[in-house]
Automatic annotation (TrEMBL):
Keywords: Nucleus. Residues 1-197 are annotated as: Disordered. InterPro entries: P-loop_NTPase (IPR027417), UTP25 (IPR010678), UTP25_C (IPR053939), UTP25_NTPase-like (IPR053940). It is found in: Nucleus, Nucleolus. This is U3 small nucleolar RNA-associated protein 25 homolog. Belongs to the UTP25 family. One of its GO terms (molecular function) is U3 snoRNA binding. Residues 1-18 have a biased composition (Basic residues). Residues 37-62 have a biased composition (Basic and acidic residues). Its main location: nucleus. SUPFAM superfamilies: P-loop containing nucleoside triphosphate hydrolases. It comes from Daphnia sinensis. It holds the Pfam family Utp25_C.
Amino acid sequence: MGRGRRGGSKRGNFKNHGSRNSSSRGRGNLKNKRKFNKNEDRKKDAESDNKRQKLQPEKESEPLVEESSSSSESEEEVKPYTQLLSMFKSSNRAQQVLTSDEDESEDIDSEDKSEEADSRSEGDNSSEFGDEEMDEEVNEEVDTEDENDEEEERGLHGVQEADDVEEDDEELDNEEHEDETEDEPSGDEEEMGSSTDPYHLHYEREMSESLLEILTSPKPYETQELNWKALGRMVIHLPAKADKKTEKPKPVLLGESTEKYVIPGTMPILKTGVPLVDYGVKSQLCANLDKRPLSDGSTQTAEELLSPLQHELFNLANEYRDIYYPEMNHLNIDEIRTVYCLHSLNHVMKSRDKVLLHNAKLKKYKENGQSTDDVEFRDQGLVRPRVLIIAPLRNSAVKIVEKLASLLLPAKGQIINKDRFYKEFGEEKDEEDKKENKKSYKPEDYEAVFTGNTDDSFRIGISVAKRTLKLYAGFYKADILIASPLGARTLLADDFDFLCSVEVLVIDQTDILYMQNWDHVLHIFQHLHLQPREQHDTDLSRVRLWALNGYSPHYRQNLVFSSVALPEAAALFSRRGTNFAGKVRVENVVLPSATTVCRVLVQLPQAFHRFPTPTAAQSADDRFHFFTKKILPQYREQLMSNTLIYIPSYYDYVRLRNHLHKEEYNFGQACEYTPDGKLAQVRNRFFLGKKRLLLYTERLHFYRRLTMKGIHHIVFYQLPTFPNFYPELCNLLQDAFQNPKYRGDGSQTCTVLYSTYDAQRLAAIVGSQRAAEMLTSDRPVHLFVSGGS
């Protein structure tokens, strides 16, 4: 249906009316006409109200027919999830017409305004018509942006329910509506490299039955090895015996003639000399990533915009492979955050543009009077949140949000609720903390982790627009969720539906999460992709079929970053993810030059005792029996006083403490729960020799990095989780920290217990090659001597 300048549709009149208001300055004739025809305008308004009352019943009846057809089609196509559909049946009718209802109200308002504009224009002269047409041409683009703003408000996901914990004021919502005036889908979103775009290949296709059987089998992956320059040795996990034969395609109603199945992951290939835009990255993100003045980010290659480590990591992440990278440190952590923030924003923006594009098409069909019964767009999940970032501390959340803002927002971008965010997440130091930092020296890695707000209970939702980043969005209105394990778990007791459609999961600083409470992380994984208990205003006719069928775990991407190789994190990575795109685990050997045993400066004999154990589950009991029978009796002698026993596990600490109480040893105890006053008293008694033994936990050393003085002998009940802790503690045996009566006697000793299941910790301390020799040697004891002149 064509639309003329004056007489066509109601919407055309609405545009003219808006143009007249926007450019009415200097039109004295128009203002005078309104004064003279004031009484006549009131009559016209009354007539338009009557017309609107007549039109409303007809408008309300239209979506009901559309709803019945769409609901019947969704029930036929999603038979495996009939339970989910039946649960939402009662509210499905109202929610499926959510967008159309808002369109209806908008059309009624526009009719109102159009009729009022027509009534006013009857008294205008012909010159005003010419001015009006000119105004319409000038403001055509502005009106289009206004329509797109309305699309953003009502159709980005169809979710309008705010989370009770993170709900904002009405003023903040109004701010968002006023600020987001730039949101519109990119015109080439549908056709942009659909055959090569990783997002389209991963999420816009269904999964074949043969691939589903492989991923749900006991051994779904086959392993291969690959070496890249920056990442080093990688173990690639690919779906085992993937059936490359595609089943007979069936016609669909998504604008394509056939429906394709996802392609199982293949060996990764490092792309070189390719512009970052050709990776499928939004040009806006490329431009913000390139900070050089007068440079064109759209033509810069990935190697020019990213470091070698970033280039290789992004090459893997952009293909939606799972990644486990255990070599993060305080020097490269900013590079790694840039990679996963860039990937997360690119994923959210692609998903958002896809939804907006489909909303615009549906709206166009309705404007042209075309039927939408045979048109179906599946572009969403069961809820809106798509990206979940798990971080340990609030200072980490601040750095992540700042990285997101620097990549997304241009010079005129806006962060909503920025002041509130920095007030709650910003750095807060007391005067006592400042004095303590001045007195004692802390290592660089400690300062990097514990500088700023170190609260470990938080959660925040972030909604992403083209030039706006809104913080403190409700969890069901947010695109990205950033939470600590503790902050998420306190919310999971009441509601876990916000985790049912997570497509990209990032675990940052996994080693710190391990020091907090690893059970919280496992608890989050147990609540991923569960069947939601409520609908949360979701339009089920727009939900992807693989999400309705319960296949979301096979589409989720897991990105795990840690500074040390943790067996618990490796087990979580291998068991809790079945991504059909494959997995990549970085496993580099520890060279002799990178070992931490070489950093021991004091002349110290170090005896490594290997104890036998058949299984990992039984290793804790075997370690305890070996220590209490072979090692501990030696320290009853008077010469073996001032012995510090380093214990990584709190459970082992409690067990050993009870044993020492039972055997009536003279010992002190220092753990993360010991009050400061009692801790100072125990440290003083140990230094003076009044306590022969001191139990010292790893978590206390991690959070406090205390300089324990008076250590003459040290026993590692188990190798430290962090390899740099080993030289830190061994160097405390130098004369500067000794009791005066022990200085210069050279009788200090170091004893270490290990088993075959401590291979990763042992390799990080003594090197991979030497660790393999120690684990396979016939001798159970190995002696190292370091330091000296």
